[in-house]
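CORE FACILITY INTAKE
Project code: CF-77B
Contact: R.S. (postdoc)
Sample description: multi-component assembly, three entities in total
Requested service: structural model of the whole complex
Turnaround: standard
Below are the sequence entries exactly as provided by the requester. Do not edit them.
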Amino acid sequence: MSVLEMLNSKQQEAAGQIEGPVLILAGAGSGKTRVLTNRTAYMIDEAGISPWNILAITFTNKAAGEMRERIDRLVGHGSESIWVATFHSTCVRILRRHVDLLGYDSNFTIYDTDDSKALMKDVLKRFQVDTKQYPEKMFLNRISNSKNELLTPEDEAKEAFGYADEQFVKVYREYQASLKKNNALDFDDLIMKTVELFTQFPEVLENYQNRFLYIMVDEYQDTNTAQFELIRLLADKNKNICVVGDDDQSIYKFRGANIRNILDFEKVYPNAKVIKLEQNYRSTQTILDAANSVISNNTSRKVKSLWTERGQGEKIRFLYTENAYDEAELIVDRICRDKREGKCEYRDNAVLYRTNAQSRLLEEKCIMAGIPYAVVGGVNFYSRKEIKDILAYLKTIDNGKDDLAVRRIINVPKRGIGATTIGKLADYGAANGLGFYECCVKAEEILGHGKAADKIAEFVSLIALFKSKLEFISLEQLVDDILDRTDYEEMLNESDPDDAAERMDNIGELINKIVSFEEQYDEPTLSDFLEEVALVSDIDNVDENADKVMLMTLHSAKGLEFPNVYLAGMEDGLFPGYMSICSDDPSEIEEERRLCYVGITRAMNKLIISAARSRMIRGETQCNAVSRFVKEIPDELIEGRTPGASASRRSDGDVSNSKQPRPVVKPVARPKTVAKPFIARATAFTDLKKGSDIASAATPDYGPGDRVSHMKFGAGTVISVEKGARDYEVSVDFDTAGTKKMFAAFAKLKKI
DNA sequence: TACTGGATTATTTTT
DNA sequence: TAATCCAGTA
């Protein structure tokens, strides 16, 4: 049987068209992954195309993994040589081979958002920019936008107008220079540098064009300009490009996604074959009608209308409660009831919300009701402090070239190495073109004899010890060793006993990942592990099989489906968000509406929409109107929408909440951040005022055994006086207050 | 050098 | 509310 026979006629058309440009407009739940996988199988098994010539690009590792698995099942052999990967890992693979052409070392590190932030902080400090007024986030956002649009600092310089723009260009340039010095690329660089590579070295591009004869891109509506260009270049020679997406599910504009990529596909490829998949295999007709009706309020979209053979199904249920506590309780109660009545398993339920902060109440109520749940997203696993610490150790051991990693752990757990010492080493490194770790190695030369240099030397030998062991022990043992020798657990216990256990659990989870990584590969190296880890996200790790209620944001829910979906917090100001309501750009509301469409279409059988009359947002209680999106659902599809919650339906069926007390959308005059001129005294480096500091640490006139008095602790006996990096550290055994350690300059001890 | 508390400030985030 | 950041203090 042909793999095409498993598809409906539209799907067949899409899967069977393998030559030339193809745009598949795949509505939610229309089986696009099925089309992509069967298409690939068809290419290999029936059209005789070599798997080696196929490239399939997705956005998440999870999607890539699923796709490969499904292709494997369809194709007997050879599927392993298909290149199925995310945009970012595709680019990493290419860059590892050719990045030297761009002046980077092939073992570059990948900076995540936190790393970028830390780096930006450094840059801004050097330029003496007031981060209160111009937070690093603002620069990073703007740089990210530039990179997504493939604009280099030089391109931006040409466009720059006015002081603020010039400052931005300066910061952008310096940020790039710092990245390069650290031999690091941030996420956006991965794409942009690959495009740069391809444009500057056509022979490299051609090499890949000859390999990737057939290209497929999933979630095409979420591509940004850089990704679009990457694909365009790769497909330029053969034009066998098939993109799949749904413009109605474009919800990442704020991250640079350009909805025009999908809307204008036919302009870029005039002979493109366009196929719409509108038959939905997921939801009931009621749910689809609601989704259709909400999304039809958007202009500029490719008109689609989802339909199903599944039948009408249940009406959508609207729940309106007094406050957010009641809302959470009501949702949890309903899930409990359904489960008790045997109507569902926990895993059949998902609660979706607009902001991560909303998960808290739901979690609390779940705990109270004793039902298992999993929160997806929020703080990314790999951005937890303890995980970052361990990874920083691993990065330092791996190559020590990542200054940020070294600086992160040089005093974690505390080893008495302070900001002054670190600053001196970093300054020396900057002045002499050395990496931070190299400076640590020659600390004594830089700092001179003393306690500070000794402490650094201790740290360096610790790292050296780990390095020397690296080739003899497994990564798992290495992490155990790190934990052991640094007394990491002890540090956690001391700093916060309450959550130490949870943090250790997380580290345990990291070790699990290491173990499974080591099992997966024949020769697992530390570098490979660090690379893999740099490119995974939270959603990649959701386990659908665990019997848990899923709590997540609407964004995280894209691509997933659940029998019962709860859309919580459907209030104007929360969803659509306050920012988009106030914006004078109507496309912002449209993006929120698409998000709503995504939410609705996650539901297979039952959709429950809820709102609260008042809720606490950022520490103050707000009363907001029911979301305008709820009102866009026709009456006949929804029940319980009249205000007054559980009361029976009102005669007029009006949705506009006449009873509601002041639908206050907070009239806070939060001024839009408009580019303002900078106030920066922009001299690159502050002069180092070394002399004065040392003078302040005068030798105390007391020594061990002397009696001294302290203004607060009274009389005591000096135990020891030690010279620190900056000041003398004095231990005193006070008669009444016990033993205290303090600094001579602060303690103002008087000899008696 | 290290800790604390007071001020500050908040969407969404596939990599 | 809650998390994070920095200045002041010992």
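Facility notes:
- Residues 357, 360, 616-620, 710, 712, 740-743, 746-747 of chain A lie near DNA strand C (CB under 10 Å from a C1').
- Chain A is about 45% helix and 15% strand.
Invoice: internal transfer
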